[in-house]
Amino acid sequence: MFGAMGKLLFAAVLACSSLGSMAQQPTITISPTPPSVGDILRVKHTGPYPVTLSLDWYPSGSPTSVTITSDKGATVTVPTADSLIVSDPTPGGAAPVSTMIQ
Questions:
Q1: Does some domain include residue 16?
Q2: What total number of domains does the chain contain?
Q3: For residue 3, what pLDDT is reported?
Q4: 97: Cβ contacts below 8 Å, ≥ 6 apart
């Protein structure tokens, strides 16, 4: 059905499309873990930048989001809370990370 050139072109397209699907999913890291109330918490994301992450403190606390613009991450002060979930609302973004607060 395909000539030699058609098969070669098909193989090249297939290889390029599978390379795109092998891209690394971004990740979120937080430190220190576990943090204590009043600590400076560093939140990092592997990009692309800028990215705004949601901060879900329990019970409610603020800030409720943090924007990261480089691989250095961003910092927030840990409010009075029991736990934190950091999530990436970007479609295909990083998996959420959680921690208890000391």
A1: no
A2: 1
A3: 57
A4: 28, 29, 30, 85, 86
> What dihedral angle (degrees, nearest 10) is formed by the CA atoms of 28, 32, 36, 38?
-80
Average pLDDT over residues 85-99: 97
pLDDT of residue 23: 72
**Sequence-separated (6 or more) residues with CB below 8 Å from residue 86:** 28, 30, 43, 53, 54, 55, 56, 96, 97, 98
**What confidence category does residue 22 fall into, taking pLDDT thresholds of 50, 70 and 90?**
low
Domain span at residue 92 reads: 25-100
Could you tell me if residue 56 is inside a domain?
yes
More confident residue, 11 or 63: 63
Buried b (16+ CB within 10 A) or exposed e, 26-40: bebebeeeebeeebe
